[in-house]
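hey so u asked for the seq, here:
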Amino acid sequence: MKVKDIAQYLSSVAPLQYQENYDNAGLIVGDSDMELTGVLLCLDSTEAVLEEAIQKKCNMVVAHHPIVFKGLKSFTGANYVERVIIKAIKHNIALYASHTNLDNMLVDGVNTKIAQKLGLVNTEILAPKNALLSKLSVFVPSSAAEAVRDALFKAGAGAIANYSECSFNTSGIGSFKASDSANPYVGSKGVRHYEKEEKIEVVCLKHQQRKIIHALGKAHPYETVAYDLIAMENQYQDIGSGLVGELSSSQDAQSFLRSLKKTFQLKMLKHTALLGRPIKRVAVCGGSGSFLLNKAIAAKADVFITADYKYHQYFDADNQLIIADIGHFESEQYTIELFYELLTQKFINFAFYCTEINTNPINYI
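ran it, structure tokens below
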């Protein structure tokens, strides 16, 4: 197995197109054609983690956080980022990161893993993204319409929420005149031809467009395929920031917070004032999620679990919900477990290791 096999699979679970614009997910260091000896899974690609990879004979590290967020102008070992890159190159270790793209997925995403640990049901994205969909319209001779529809569906087109193979079809008459250099599927050169056609309309996701257009070209009988690809502003409910769901039954706020502390193995838990009402609806965002507070309030969450809150931001709860800051590392710690589950289910007979290094830079006394 090669580095590219892991990279391609992880990017199919969490496409790189869905990372935030400040992020740097994907293959950061390494030859994609390198044969793998083992893969180490972690939150952070630190020097200690790379040393662990060397000891475990792993030549690939899959991390949640990218070791490089912006361009490096020198590699002198002046800081831990440069030292990690130098060490990875020196020991021929590939570094891959799946970060905000994995955060943004409803299926097999970071926040879904958090929700599973909390026992939440009826989960949905807290802030769905828009402008991720396009509408593809293509004109096909009626005799070939079903074959083209099948090809589009197999490539991923036509998926809407819990439904697949969705399309809208209209019949009409198309006209064209083939030039002397053309090779027409029907009709004669130099003569206007009328053909009974169907217009097939399907939606497709941003990261699937190239694959879908390629499938269309292979299945369509015309020499030149007439199609429109129009960007849509609709929200896509399966991709976005944060998550909100419900407990199977309401819990007393203090009991819920004690359970939260135990589940996430917290040494401390910072939260705003309890509001004298039970907890039923829970919003979560792994890592720094303060930007989602208004979304959590609008979703009528009783508590918002996230990390990295600043002093004055706690006042923004305004007695509308409880903010529970559990820590950045603590909120995302089960991402390693998520990586392991995904990869061992896909690549059954290969060596994957969860790091034994606690990379949390924050200590408590």
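Residues 211 and 311 are 47 Å apart (CA to CA). The mean pLDDT is 96.
lmk if thats what u needed
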